[in-house]
Amino acid sequence: MESLTQNILNCLNQGTPFALATIIKSHGSTPRTSGSKMVVLSDGQLYGTVGGGLVEARVIETCLDMISLPQCQIKEFILNQDLKDGLDMVCGGNLTLWIETFGPQPSPALTQVFETMASLEKEGKKAVLVSKIQGFSRETFTTQKCLVLPDGTVVGPNLVPKALFDATGDNQFSGTAPVIQNHNLEEFIIEPSQTNDTLFIFGAGHVGLQLAKMAHLTDFRTIVVDDRAEFANEKRFKHAHAVHVTNQFDMAFHQLINKKLVIDKNSYIVILTRGHLHDQTVLEQALKTQAAYIGMIGSRRKRNQVYANLGEKGVTKNSLDQVYSPIGLKINSETPAEIAVSIIGEIIQVRAQNQ
Known about the structure:
- This protein is an alpha+beta fold.
- It has helices at 4-14, 53-66, 81-87, 108-122, 162-169, 206-217, 252-258, 276-286, 300-312, 317-320, 336-354; strands at 18-28, 37-41, 46-48, 72-79, 93-102, 128-137, 140-148, 154-155, 179-183, 186-192, 198-202, 221-226, 242-245, 267-271, 293-296.
- The longest helix has 19 residues, at 336-354.
- The chain starts with a helix and ends with a helix.
């Protein structure tokens, strides 16, 4: 499953006209939150979603009406009682969407911006997309875009005033939603690029395989690590971002660092190796990272023994209390696929709580 940025880049490269709808503000109980995006092609094909149901149908209708002209609109969609009745839904609220269209002959600079974004996403790196608003006419306008990289490099036209450029460099725009920013008499829409959270799976056995499939479906960037090449290989893990074979688990994290794979607060670690001692080795290293989630498979008896061993090595109880073990939501799972469902469910729950 390709990322939405890659879908956009494919359309630009193929000269396929499309509209891009982005939620810039949500209020009340709405299906999707700010920053959610959807691409609409002229034949009605969709990539992404802004919530489904009748409200999305109205967004699609608006996109199709706009798609023949290079234009942008900021439009409010109200989930009022009539809309709720038509959907048989109980949520209600307002969505403000930014809808922009892209024609069959995009500029090389625009294509370069999205090429760079797609490349950065694959590497798990972030940037800031800046759209300068131009040519207000009634409710419509156009934009020019550039991309500001973390090191200050600007991809595309240099549109950004120094004060705004400094703000992007200071990481002042780090949320998930686009921000409309005024600078003197100019207006900009600032979008921090959203990289997928990374799931590190230590253990390429049956559960690890099923978990990698589900991680792919739920938009995680997946890294698989094991000491068995016959299990840990790209043929078996077709959707993983990377698969690494380590000679020793006590060197696994060091090897990941050497490959510039950073474990940070947007990372999730699942420990499923083939043995308790390997699990303990991985857990000891995992606790030294900033990972948002660390989960270890196994019974309470196994967990208690691993914790006791690590306690003797100086690992604090407070650190061990942060580990999810036994791993996964309690849904009476038995098969590898069911266990993987319980794990990914728990991770999604933690991810939502951290947003």
